[in-house]
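Help!! Second protein's tokens look totally different from the first
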Amino acid sequence: MSQPSPLVQPLLLQFQQLFFISKLVGVLPQDLDKFRHKNALEKSRNGMFYMLGILGIYVILYNLLIYSFGEEDRNLKASQSTLTFVIGLFLTYIGLIMMATDQLTALINQGKLGEIYERIRLVDERLYREQCLVDNFCIARRIRIMLIMTFIFEISILIATYITLVDYTEWLSLLWIVSAVPTFINTLDKIWFAVSLYALKERFEAINATLEDLVVEHERYKAWLAADDDSAALGNWTRTMDSNESQPPQYDSNLEYLYKELGGIDVGSLRGSGSKHRNKVAPIAHSLNSFGGTVPTALKPQQANANPIINVAQESELSNATKVEEKLNNLCQVHDEICEIGKAMNGLWSYPILSLMAYGFLIFTAQLYFLYCATQSQSIPSLFRSAKNPFITVIVLVYTSGKCIYLIYLSWKTSLASKRTGISLHKCGVVADDNLLYEIVNHLSLKLLNHSVDFSACGFFTLDMETLYGVSGGITSYLIILIQFNLAAQQAKDAIQSLNSFNGTAGFVGAATEMDNVSSTFYYLMTTTKMTPINY
């Protein structure tokens, strides 16, 4: 029997290009055939062995790269301060540590990652039943833009550094390509997290938009009711005026001559004998005035249409608290499920995010510090030779900081979108102005308050704009401290060299003085010996 077609397309359908590239370079170990035919991430033993083999090759090539370009590093400790040597040695391997963290975490969590995207698909089906649609086509476009930017940055840094700062006449210089592998793999892994996080944000915003539409619909419905009441009042007033105008004009004795002049009307009949006949004056029947022209007859007020077009507005869902309660409950349950998915995603990428933030903080600070060292004609580690060129340094800093800032900003916006649902829900209660709906909204608001989601790096710090501000201040502070230590070390080194030079000069002067004293003594002895007579 054929399986029923799903109500919505799975989110992983938009990840095809990213998955194939990630599978090729060893970022994800999931089964390729299952993803191609079922759009699902499932465990694969062959993929696990392939990924471990790729990781081992990367480690070997990276160490070979360090050994091949390590001639400058061997002389770094002798020529520079110990601080610069230690920083360079530690930061040389931090990229490799970051890459290994990403790949090993993907190996451990390969089964959980597929469950997350399956839960997102079920959430999309529940949103579809509540007439809350989510557009996934923007996800594929965002992935393509990120991949293009990644290739542009990686190739620009690699080619610019290789041409300007590497001796490409030697065949071992080709190993410089390996220096771009850790950052490239890390970027692909973070694209998975960033796009998945953006998908959650879109679902939060879809729920908020649905609640806002309920508010707008009810406000439109209330405006229609108010307009209907006004039109009813206007109709009553119009009917009153029509009834007054339908009464014949009363006879006025002062205009008796005018009646005689216009039509020869019997004035006595107009006077009548009683007041009840006075209001039954017929309109003037003569059609010609004294000048021979026609007299315009009074037009009868136009009767209202017997079948008027009725302006009917659709009844608002918020006008019936009992009916809308189920819809609000379903939306809040979906909101809770999305929050749980966000927490699960944060758990899967917790260590990779921590390693990325540590890498970004250290690399940003070290790149600026080594740029200062290069301006002072000081030796720097071989893998940071890009700091010798300010233009390449700017590209490296923009690329590294861009990944960190974008993840922090996206996590912050997703958290805000999840918390804004409570505000949109309270708007429904305010605009409806119904006691039963107020009770429903207050009950659901307590649930939403306990279901907020915040993203962190292993609990050390929250990914929000406050953390970004703190990291920026920390980079500035540590950069100043490093430069001060470097200045102190260079001053101490210059003082030692001056002292050694002074000691060498003083020793040479002392040796010359001593030789002069010996020569004087010898001359005195010779002179004394020659001039003293010998007595026998």
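Here's the second one for comparison:
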Amino acid sequence: MQFIFLGQKWIGLRTIIMRLTCMFSFILLFGAAGLVVFIHLQDPEDIVHQRTPGIKYNMGPQQPKKQDCTSSNNQDVRIRKNSAEALAMGNQRRSLYPPVNAPTKLQSTDKKQNIMFVMKDHQKKDAEINPIGLHKRRRRFRIKKSPILIAMNSSSLNLPMLKSEDRNNNNWKSLYQIQRERKRIMRDTCSKYKSNNRRIITPYHVSRIFVEDKYRILYCEVPKAGCSNWKRVLMVLNGLASSTKDIQHNTVHYGNYLKRLDGFDRKGIYHRLNTYTKMLFIREPFEKLVSAFRDKFEHPNNYYHPVFGKAIISRYRVNASKEALRTGSGVKFKEFIQYLLDVHKPVGMDIHWDHVNRLCSPCLIDYDFVGKFESMEEDANFFLHLIGAPQNLTFPRFKDRHSNEERTTTKITQSYFAQLSPAQRQHSYDFYYMDYLMFNYSKPFEDLY
């Protein structure tokens, strides 16, 4: 046997090899355990948000695009405050969910499906919670205790019901059929791409849903798709203001007058998801992206410039000036796209350019109404008509931020994307592919595949 002199002792070579082997095995086991814990703590996703280049899936013709309407601006730097007590419920609403005759190939999906609803088991009330404590508690949700599973029934083709006097109105009938088609495409896409049949809803999935109890509405906020004005409408419906024109931008976003669905206990969430009218409004993905870029990086901003701008310029700009590195101002669109497509981003994602199917989880939550920014006025007023809102309440058309600046249109969007290489445009399209597919938007450039 060979010996090695180590310090003041002679140690056998075999002993050294055994010790090194045990140490290496321990390191491997420790790393594997850490990986298992990391994966366990990740939020479950039902579908793949991006595609690999080359996948093609034709969903049929797109609805014709109409005029641009109100844009939105929501800087999601907020601290949860105590919400006002829920307003008294109105008279019991008549059922808005009659069975709908679906096409033959969808009859199997029209049956009620069992969904597992996951919610933290706590007995908190809004008025009893310290806002900072709530923020920390939400961040630690998945590691504090095991979730409670609740079976939740859901139908994939529920729509608010047209009143008897509206059934002879060709305009209402046409809008109603458009809604049926949008929901069908959304359900077909989810059925094709979702990973499995077991669906799980967590507080993360309902964190962007606002609640209006008087008219029993759940609204999923999609930034840059009219969310500022939709919040104004919800505040008027809730009796918090007499007119949408009376509500300032900061009041809308930082006043904390509207409750979020994840602020309720599991019983309250379960009840509202099953009985309230759930709706969201979406926008053409590239147009929404350019609108966010113009708002956050082409105007003074004391959050997006230092947090995102500095990181983007530092990573992607060659020979950046000290002033640009110090302030984060002047981010170019091409640099912004480099950040967006980078798998190792220097700073995380933001709700203003995140995927809609991740913000609102339409494959997990069966939305009753899907509106589009391109037909905002028509869709929004049709929705207000369906829920029985006051006749004098219409969706506002004004733009409350950068009002002197032209809205982001298709032409403006194309001018920004013309700055990119064909490969960058293709990768950007792949990045938002699921949103294009799910909401039936056509390809924005002919050379995309």
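Reply: Different proteins will give different token patterns, so don't panic. The first helix runs from residue 13 to 41.
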